Periplasmic beta-glucosidase
Amino acid sequence: MQNLGAANHFSHSTKVSFVLLFILTVAGIQAQTVVPAWYNQVHEVEIDKLLDKMTLEEKVGQMTLFTSDWDVTGPTIRKGYEADIKSGRLGAIFNAHTADYNRRLQKIAVEETRLGIPLLFGYDVIHGYRTIFPIPLAEAGSFNPAAAEESARIAARESAAAGLHWTFAPMVDIARDPRWGRVMEGAGEDVYLGNVMGAARVRGFQGDDLADPFTLLACAKHFAAYGAAQAGRDYHTVDISERVLHDIYLPPFKAVLDAGAATFMTSFNELDGVPATANEHLLTEILREDWGFMGFVVTDYTSINEMIPHGIAKDEAEAGLLAVNAGVDMDMQGAVFYNNLRKQVENGEVAMKMIDDAVRRVLRMKFALGLFDDPYRYSDSEREKANILTPAHREAARRIARESMILLKNDNETLPLSKNLKRIAVIGSLADSGADMIGAWHADGRAEDVVTLLTGLKEALGSAVKVDFVDVDAIKGTDRKGFDEALKAARSADAVILALGETWEMSGEAASRADIGLPGVQDQLVEELSQTGKPFVAVLFNGRPLAIPELDKKAAAILEAWFPGTEAGHAIADLLFGDDAPSAKVPLTFPRSVGQVPVFYAAKNTGRPRNPNEKYTSKYLDEENSPLYPFGYGLTYTTFSYGDPVADKTEMNRNGKVKILTTVTNTGKRTGTEVVQLYVRDLAGSVTRPLRELKAFQRVELSAGESKTVSFELTAEDLSFYRRDMTFGPEAGEYQVFVGGDSRAEKSVTITFK
Ligand code: GLC
């Protein structure tokens, strides 16, 4: 999306955008609208002509999305969608994929209906289509937006080759409660990291040209504040202040809109008593009037129908009115628009202009995709074969998986392991489970494509090393079955790898956990293994931060692998044997116990911050305040030291910038990559402000002994927030600027905003 004010050189498309901006301004669309790049491919005049030809029933069809009966991602499946296409009453389908299948459905729409309006095909391509990348939470931990953009681009390449036009991603819900299963889909707790990774994924999915047959429409979801569900229980109530909504939960949505996101999806939750799908404040006032969004809004799965159990609609007809009047353009799977909207327009309950505006926004995307030029450009089975699960895609998946894994512990430099071993014990069913490595929301990912941990280790070690694999299932197990064999293998091994964590179904949608420890009897296995006295390396596979204080005490080393995707085993082996070094950092705080939740770094100080010597201060009687592993934390195979940060000026005003410099030195014996992080604290605001907020980061590779000066630039925008009067901006006063390797960074410099 061109930010017109920022363009230094006026390319052709920017000149076009200036013209468009003028037209849009005249057309009454907000002057501050930053026109998305894809708008250059939209032909409003063509849309006008088509709208003039359409019947009301055909218009409602463009506002209707049904699932195919291939893949269930929600509670109901509607039969007969092919007949709906033929009747012109269905404009989009999800969960239908492969070039041939979608071509068959598209032919019905284009060749057997009155107007031949092409279908839109959507699918949940969340972290890869067939080549599966690490779950988005893991990828966020890489603090590498280029990696996120690359994996999204590959996912788009594979999906578009398989007949798809639209992915229901990126999920940009800030989440600070690891009990919530859907933390695996997002970028974790931090606003800035969420902004950066969300925008990178939109760029990856949409590229520079939506008509390019290797790009997809992105979908920003779930709008909004779905991650703030009470008690971390999926679909639960969200009750947050307008300030928290604007400071914490909305920024990633604005970031992805500014990156050009073509569609938005409403969330299931209510917000301040109004379900998002009926929330005019969200969908019209903020999204369209304040932000100038020009794409379309789709609901989440039957979320219009769910306004009845929410208790704000007596029946589906009323729910449909609430949704369309709030600003919903397309009804996913609910058939509420399908069943009611025509009558509601005919009896004057809904203005035809409301329908035309919604249909226009949907048709814009079909034009931007080039579907009216060539409705079959995405349905080429030869292209599909050539672009799915290629060696290049696997290489990218392996590299990005390596960059997404966090070294949480490494006592006595246990890692990297030498390959000069006679025997290695590999314990735990997850070590040989392809299905678990691809995690939830794995689209067309297949267990049989996966390189498991066991396979990766065997390939890395070769046939000379004896690999004793003990397939003990301590996750679903309820007793010691397999423990004795595991302990025996450990005792006779030169190295012990213990695969622990969750199965893939234990996170994702409708998968909240009240206890976020190691499920099953894994803690017992850890305890008995530790009693052998044999040091062991734990490799964690999980979709959420786990409360693992016992494992932290007993394991010699812990590598957080999350659900690393199709190349899991190769990536882990690369790190365990030192062919590469871990570099990821914690994107979502690991608590010591679930009783601390929510616990996150950007917390407020309170009026009685913890003082261990004072009774009446903010603390627990039975637990630390500090988490087990804080945001931004992660080890590698070397160490780093930081010089004191220096500011090139100590004062800044609204138009000013301050450069912050710090010297980072590799003080160890191996090359390593550090994520240098910059945090800001507003020492006294018109409202209380977090102890720290991440405002910038840089991945820096340093060889042993090497030093580098890392430079950041702070602007007034970086210091801005929703002030006491709910206006957005900075405030005069002192700001402490911290630079370091995680959110506990101590070294700081103070600047004054005038
Ligand atoms: C699900 C999810 C949403 C997904 C949609 C389609 O219920 O909430 O993220 O995109 O339905 O599968």
User: Anything to note?
Assistant: DSSP finds 23 helices and 27 strands in the chain. Residues 1-18, 24-32 have pLDDT under 50 and may be disordered. The longest helix spans residues 145-161. Residues 466 and 735 are 57 Å apart (CA to CA).
